[in-house]
Specification:
Strand content of chain B: over 45%
Radius of gyration of chain A: 13 Å
Shape of chain A: globular
Number of helices of chain B: 0
Order of helices and strands of chain B: EEEEEEEEEEE
Oligomer: heterodimer
Number of helices of chain A: 0
Structural class of chain B: mainly beta
Largest sheet of chain B: 7 strands, mixed
Number of strands of chain B: 11
Distance between the termini of chain B: 36 Å
Order of helices and strands of chain A: EEEEEEEEEEE
Chain lengths: 112, 114
């Protein structure tokens, strides 16, 4: 059973606009969430994370929002750039276990 | 050095071959992982080593055999694979026990089994 879900397999956005990628999880034990970016034939690279004690974390153009009651997180990219075109995975862990559970990914295309 | 290095980048093997995938990190991380990823699917955990001991084996078939010779190296020995084992094999490492624990991935080995 998929504990972390990304319901949008793909997203297209114009350059300069905001990209919003969504992620839902089912396990209430998850307390740490991460976003990874992946280009074809490469390994995922870490983008940004958030602990369950926060509801927002910002790093440059990237902001992650966490809504614990809804078991939902989102990644905002502002402004979007063509180089942001990649597959984005969200991941979750319960820190006692050190296991990371990945969502199915959202393929983002930023149109110049 | 924040890299996880995997070799080879590409591998084609027959179903009777024996081959090994290699992974190395020099970040002082105490946990190393093997993931398998098929196209348009999330990375799927296979094995976790923590402090050079196998701590998680996600019911992986015995034709995949992991080995952790030391804290910097991780191998995956392959024998008698099936065509459905063709995938991108990703190695990752993490500090283990850090408050901001995260995985650092290598670029992967694209494996094709004929």
């Amino acid at each position: 059973d998929q504990q972390v879900k990304q319901n949008s397999p793909s997203l297209s956005v114009q350059e300069g606009r905001i990209s919003i990628l969504n992620c839902d999880y089912t396990n209430s034990m998850f307390d740490y969430f991460l976003w990874y970016k992946k280009y074809p034939a490469e390994g995922p690279t870490f983008l940004i994370s958030i602990s369950s004690i926060k509801d927002k974390n910002e790093d440059g153009r990237f902001t992650v929002f966490l809504n614990k009651s809804a078991k939902h997180l989102s990644l905002h990219i502002v402004p979007s750039q063509p180089g942001d075109s990649a597959v984005y995975f969200c991941a979750a862990s319960a820190r006692t276990g050190n296991q990371f559970y990945f969502g199915t990914g959202t393929s983002l295309t930023v149109i110049p | 050095d924040t890299e996880v290095t995997q070799t080879p980048k590409h591998l084609v093997m027959g179903m009777t071959n024996k081959k090994s995938l290699k992974c190395e990190q020099h970040m002082g991380h105490r946990a190393m992982y093997w993931y398998k990823q098929k196209a348009k699917k999330p990375p799927e955990l296979m094995f976790v080593y923590s402090y050079e001991k196998l701590s998680i084996n996600e019911s992986v078939p015995s034709r995949f055999s992991p080995e952790c010779p030391n804290s910097s190296l991780l191998n995956l020995h392959l024998h008698a694979l099936q065509p459905e084992d063709s995938a991108l094999y990703l190695c990752a490492s993490s500090p283990w026990g850090a408050s901001d624990e995260k995985l650092f991935f290598g670029s992967g080995t694209q494996l094709s089994v004929l």
